[in-house]
Amino acid sequence: MRKKIDPVGAPEVIGPFSHGILAEGRVLYVSGQGPQDPVSKTFRLGDFEKEVRLTMDNVGRVLSGAGAGWEHVVRVGVYLARTSDFGEFNRIYSEYVREPYPARTTIICSLLAGISVEVDCVAVLPASPEGAA
Asked: How far is CA 28 from CA 18, 83, 92, in A?
């Protein structure tokens, strides 16, 4: 269960995120993922859109491994190497997430290995049957 929290008096949300998400269920914490090719194990650098898509797909692989999808994500951390990539990131990110959008923080910082983007998240899955993982 995910419920958008949009309190009276809060500033208008500008972008694909929510002020808050109230969630109930099992919690999955996804470590930061970058544009690492799952086959060659190397980072794919140079084309920002391709870096973002590979990064988002890598997050999706971790989610899928736990029986989850982007619809279960309640919080996202985005790390960008350049402020100028913020709008392009939002455009691509919006293809992966739907209302109610996860809560999100975006940080502009230096990233390892010359990558331009890293994404982590928290997902909440429905409660599992007794004894299931």
From this structure: 19, 29, 23
- Between the alpha carbon of residue 20 and those of residues 2, 8, 13, 123, the distances in Å are 10, 13, 11, 13
The whole-angstrom separation of Cα 21 and Cα 33 is: 22
The domains of the chain are located at: 26-125
Q: Locate tokens 């350049």: which residue?
A: 82
Q: 89: which 2 tokens?
A: 């990131």
SS3 call for 113: helix
**Dist CA 1 CA 11 (whole Å):** 25
> Computed from CA positions of residues 87, 37, 96, 132, in that sequence, does the dihedral angle turn out positive or negative?
negative
For 26-125, CATH number? Answer: 3.30.1330.40
Using one digit for the tens of pLDDT, what is the confidence trace for 23-54? 788 999 999 999 999 999 999 999 999 999 99
